[in-house]
């Protein structure tokens, strides 16, 4: 990318003495622009509805300009558009810090522009340790997330020129002292992902991986299987589509078969089933947990990311497998009540109430 490291006060070479309990790998910082729009705008945009197709900065800016005339207003979302730090891992880490009080940090890079500063400010406000983020010359990634009347999302990311951290920039100091590393499978970040996993294992850090999308599983199955079969992935999350794609070709290609496959290679395996809850396995123990009731779905963005955050909170608190799934169900249910992958204060309160009802330990202090 031609980007270079810039010295700043919060990006010094010395890492804080007290390492974050959970560390997220977000190679390229990302800003999400989320809006509810009518069908006509989606008809004008190339590509299938519901998918995620990379676009140029010119295309992204054109879509943003068109959004203003296609906004769907609602009493719950008075703002026409929400802008926030984005990315699957970012959503998980921010949720763990802001909603569960878990000590968290991010490893990655952000650009020396307005979007980069916004990303850093958003994460700092949420209590996330940003000392492992590198500031580089160049743009920060952006993504337009368009939510339709049925609460389905269509995403158009612009990442081609975004600055990102490289595999050879990662150090053992980045991971030393942490308990968990959270990452997302993505072919574009495969080398830095492998490097992060290798160093994490050297430091005795558990690794949690999300399968990203069924397209990613379908198109890059071989490198994904190599990661899973390495034995270095301790916890794996997949949604129903990703799980089914993973075992496509098997006699019974369904979530249960996928769960068994994942559990052969990972200590913990979880398959989320949307409205039907989730299934999970750890060792010989298997559980099925129903989805939380009475939640309104405004936007599904971040549902899996916040589920993962709740599940990880359960693990670090020493909860049972079933309780971990229930906490994940509560936090996943909280984020879909408003636009974007950032839970609002009101919806964190809603989550705590649901946890109280289910007799789960409600987070109130840093752990």
Short description:
The chain has 13 helices and 13 strands. It has 367 residues and is α/β, with parallel strands linked by helices.
Structural class: alpha/beta
How far from one another are the termini?
Answer: 38 Å
**Count of individual helical segments:** 13
* Outline type: globular
Q: H/E element string?
A: EEHHEHEHEEEHEHEHHEHHEEEHHH
Mean pLDDT, all residues: 90
Residue ranges: pLDDT <50 for 5 or more in a row? 1-16
Helix content bin: 25-40%
- Please state the CA-atom Rg, rounded to the nearest Å: 19 Å
Number of strands: 13
The biggest sheet amounts to:
9 strands, mixed
Strand order of the biggest β-sheet = 5-4-1-8-9-10-11-12-13
Q: Beta-sheet strand percentage?
A: 15-25%
Give an account of the 3D structure.
37% of the residues lie in helices and 20% in strands. By secondary structure, the chain is an alpha/beta fold. The strands form two sheets. The protein has a nine-stranded mixed beta sheet, sandwiched between helices. A four-stranded mixed beta sheet has the order 3-2-6-7. The longest helix is centred in the C-terminal third of the chain and has 15 residues, at 321-335. It is globular and about 55 Å long. Residues 1-16 have low confidence and may be disordered.
């Amino acid at each position: 990318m031609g980007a270079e490291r810039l010295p700043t006060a919060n990006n010094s070479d010395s890492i804080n003495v007290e390492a974050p309990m959970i560390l997220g790998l977000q190679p390229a910082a990302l800003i999400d622009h989320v809006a509810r729009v009518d069908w006509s705008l989606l008809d004008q945009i190339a590509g299938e509805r519901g998918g995620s197709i990379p676009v140029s900065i010119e295309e992204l800016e054109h879509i943003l300009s068109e959004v203003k005339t296609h906004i769907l207003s609602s009493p719950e979302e008075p703002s026409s558009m929400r802008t926030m730090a984005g990315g699957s891992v970012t959503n998980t880490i921010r949720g763990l810090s802001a909603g569960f009080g878990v000590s968290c940090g991010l490893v990655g890079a952000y650009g020396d522009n307005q979007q980069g500063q916004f990303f850093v400010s958003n994460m700092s406000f949420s209590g996330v340790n940003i000392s492992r983020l590198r500031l580089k010359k160049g743009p920060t990634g952006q993504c337009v997330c368009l939510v339709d009347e049925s609460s389905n999302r269509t995403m158009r990311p612009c990442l081609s020129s975004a600055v990102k951290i490289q595999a050879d920039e990662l150090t053992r100091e980045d991971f030393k002292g942490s308990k968990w590393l959270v990452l997302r499978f993505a072919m574009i970040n495969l080398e830095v992902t492998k490097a992060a996993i290798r160093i994490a294992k050297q430091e005795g850090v558990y690794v949690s991986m999300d399968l990203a999308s069924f397209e990613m599983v379908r198109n890059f199955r071989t490198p994904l299987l190599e990661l899973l079969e390495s034995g270095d992935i301790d916890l794996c999350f997949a949604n129903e589509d990703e799980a089914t794609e993973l075992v496509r070709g098997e006699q019974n290609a369904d979530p249960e078969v996928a769960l068994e496959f994942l559990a052969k290679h990972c200590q913990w395996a979880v398959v989320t089933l949307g409205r039907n809850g989730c299934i999970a396995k750890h060792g010989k123990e298997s559980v099925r947990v129903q989805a939380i009731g009475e939640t309104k779905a405004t936007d599904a963005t971040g549902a899996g990311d916040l589920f993962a955050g709740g599940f990880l909170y359960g693990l670090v608190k020493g909860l049972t497998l079933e309780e971990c799934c229930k906490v994940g169900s509560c936090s996943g249910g909280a984020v879909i009540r408003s636009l974007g992958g950032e839970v609002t204060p009101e919806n964190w309160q809603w989550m705590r109430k649901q946890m109280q009802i289910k007799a789960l330990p409600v987070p109130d202090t840093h752990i």
